[in-house]
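Bench log, entry 3. Co-assembly request; chain sequences pasted below exactly as received.
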Amino acid sequence: GAGVSQTPSNKVTEKGKYVELRCDPISGHTALYWYRQSLGQGPEFLIYFQGTGAADDSGLPNDRFFAVRPEGSVSTLKIQRTERGDSAVYLCASSLEGALNTGELFFGEGSRLTVL
Amino acid sequence: GDSVTQMEGPVTLSEEAFLTINCTYTATGYPSLFWYVQYPGEGLQLLLKATKADDKGSNKGFEATYRKETTSFHLEKGSVQVSDSAVYFCALGSGGYNKLIFGAGTRLAVHP
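Structure output for the full assembly:
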């Protein structure tokens, strides 16, 4: 497809379980971002990839959260030992490398995670 | 740290009414400012932007002016339509690589 694709769209899991969320960015976009949006809040930055490397992971809340982008395209956000407070919509966005500072991120529709 | 504050919603208007959604920011330096919109069932998308003081961003009849003296970037539209019903997010750009800091969002509902 032409846009950013995220799977699954919905995930319900139990406290303590492991979860993976996938993001397929727009073809040719070298920059990829993960954000988290809690109910009634704006998106909150988690991590930024330029190519395969995490250029800024300062938004990851703790070491239960980890993200990879091994081939510089698809990215996976991994959450270990999930907690109820992890429930949120996880948003992925991508942009052209040349679009630095333009603010034009292309967002997916998000993966809604519910931890029971 | 940097932050964005925008007016709480929901904002409910009749078609053709004038819209203002207030946004103020706190930042070190001179950030770029943005409005993103999220239509029902869709991902966030950039609506307009301004990269320096006194710049006016505009798109689809919406406008916002970067006011450094009041640290504001209020969104306006002269005549809203039902199709403008969405959630609007004000954001600032930080860190030099599209690291965006978002406000909490304002839901707009426009009735015929």
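Chain A has a mean pLDDT of 92. The longest strand of chain A covers residues 88-95.
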